[in-house]
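# step 3/5: fold
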Amino acid sequence: MRLRLLVPFLRTMRNRFFPAGTVPVKSLAVFLFGLLVCLVLYLVSVRVVGYFHRQSELGVILSLKIFQMAWIVMFAMLIFSSMVSAVSTLFLSQDNEIIFSAPVSPAEIYFMRYVTTTFYTSWMMVIFSLPVFGAYGRVFQAGILYWPLMIVCVVATVLIASGLGMGLTVVLVRFFPARQTKDIIFYLSLCFGIFIYIIFRLLRPEDLVNPDKYAHFVEYLSSISQPAGPYVPAAWSANLLSLYLLDREIDWLLVALLVSGTPSLFFIGEWAMQHFFSVGFTRSQESFGGFRSFTHRGRYRPGATRWIFRKESKTFLRDSAEWSQLFMIAALVVVYLYSFKALPVERSPMQTEYVTNLISFLNVGMTGFIITSLAGRFVFPAVGAETAAFWLIQSSPLSVNRFLLYKFLFYLVPFTVLSLLLVVTSDALLAISGPMWWFSVTASLVICWTVVGMAVGFGALYADFKAENRAAALGGMGALLFLFTAMTVVFLITAGGALPMYHFMKRWIAGHEMLLVDKISLLAWLAGSLLLGALSVAFFWRKGCRSLTG
């Protein structure tokens, strides 16, 4: 019976990527494009890790410390995603009534939700982490055995994070006296925000590049070379692989912890499901309390823009699984900006002004990737979130093109504010001024507007009006295509401005007069970036409109 409950999920995945039992060109193109992105990520990681590795023993230790931090951050993000998704899948799923009417036990339901939640919350993390972690094996020349060991660690860490997140969700929903479902997720987000902040502060990343805080270099070396905390499951994987990278030895105790920890947490969560699920599910179905007035005494002011915006804002605020993630985003923004404040740029052997301007340029690309990931999470599923009520839009005098335009304008404002917040604040912390400030702001705006427009177009082209929630829509072909295409556009815009901005800033820092060719090259980059963004948005926007009207 457990495997039978997975049949709808498996058939849905098969029909998304291999309809009618064939291998369409689109699925093959996505697979090849994904391999290309992973290859580029692998080569870039090899260059970066290799740079640290070639410096000295201190560089080797620093690279391994970054390796451990990456494992712990990935583990924390997976727990958060599992907790948020578990609330929707276990307690708020639309097919719960059908499943509960069938002769299945809570343990069988937990197994099905465990598999589907793990897939939806971790597939992207696994795909993009394997090239990064694999680069360490190449740099340290760990041999062929490192790869299966790394895959075992990644899979075990993902399953442990999913089991821990789902088990905590079942227990918390049972004991929290929450009359409204949004309160449950609010408490979960708050707990996770405190957890991620404590974990990040315990790592003390600013001390990794500041040996002046230690009386002797040996003390500094011993401090940063200490293994990650033994009580965090992600640290088991990090320490296991670190030991193998350095000494080609396998700590079988850590292997036993990873192998036994996965089924142990699963069975604990299954036990919690059998004992606490019924009460928690009953509480999660309680209606909203309080008085609600359904009349509006103000003056009636018709207008499609105003009402579409009101509908979008109310839909977002009523879905607690969506707005609760704002706490996580705020925490990540604070940590991201704090990293700029902790950078010891004054210790660099290069001139400080060169280093800060280089970091500011790289920050444009990083901001673009952040905007892309958030647009894939919030903007891409926005059209499909209309569900079966989309027929109201189709039957109204509002055209599909104008409807998508209102969607675009609604999400454009918060994403523009976030992009400017990341770029302007980081430039202020780095004391950036002059041409680089204008370049970073201009490039980030072009990238932001392009990515949001592409997200709306892709969302219309691959709208899933039957998706259970917005998170479920991210497991389809459209989400993959959008992420890969948007990241390619971000890379092209950022890389296209590297050479002209390098020559321009080199003369500006030296105090020389700007050459006409440098000014023309920057204008050509700006015109090319605008043209690339406009064509990308227009192409997918038009295909999206045709898909919705056809």
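# step 4/5: annotate
Residues 190 and 327 are 7 Å apart (CA to CA).
# step 5/5: archive (pending)
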